[in-house]
Amino acid sequence: MKNKYSRLSAIRVIIAGQRISSQDELLKQLLALGYECTQATLSRDLKEMEVTKEVVAGGECIYLLPDSPLHPNAEIPYGVQMSGGVVSIDFSGNIAVVKTRTGYARGIAKDIDRCGFESVLGTVAGDDTILLIIKEGYTKQDLLLELERIGVVPSVMCHPDKAKRRKDPTLELGQTCLRDCL
To answer: Which CATH code of 3.30.1360.40, 3.40.1010.20, 3.30.200.20, 3.40.50.2300 fits the domain covering 82-177?
Structure first.
């Protein structure tokens, strides 16, 4: 009989190397490798390993390891995906809607949350959009400067007089397009 740590290692290898979409599928893979375990044991193993099931490109739900960049709790160093990840920021009252490249929103939102910005009450992130709530008494400019500090937005956003913006009739008042400002 193989031990728990060997089984956990096998689970990690299987999930890292294949697109596994169900526990049944994962159990079959483990059985093929000589690991006998119940669905309940597998479920506990996945929880212990912090494996999540997430929707990926194409709408498929697969298991992801914590070190996967798509995992919701993935540790992403400041600035790794920031400068090229944000596409636009739009404001309505004390709400900022940050559009990102696909797959970037969670990591950027996590960095914003870790920084503990004075101006941010909270964030909610999807796959390509972050909803930021600005605290009472703070301005859009306060938020932009804090985002600039960690590299989420380029300085041209915080200092619009330096930006060379393209004339884009699809942009609404208050919306900033970063595609041509970088």
So the answer is: 3.30.1360.40
Q: Taking a C-beta distance cutoff of 8 angstroms, is the pair 152, 86 a contact?
A: yes
pTM: 0.47
pLDDT digits (tens, 9 = 90+) for 60-112: 788 888 776 555 554 444 444 445 578 888 899 999 999 888 777 887 888 78
d(CA 47, CA 50): 5
Which run of H or of E encompasses 157?
Answer: helix 155-158
Query: What is the rounded distance in angstroms from the CA atom of residue 89 to the CA atom of residue 150?
Result: 16
pLDDT digits 0-9 by tens, 32-61: 999 989 999 999 999 998 888 877 666 778
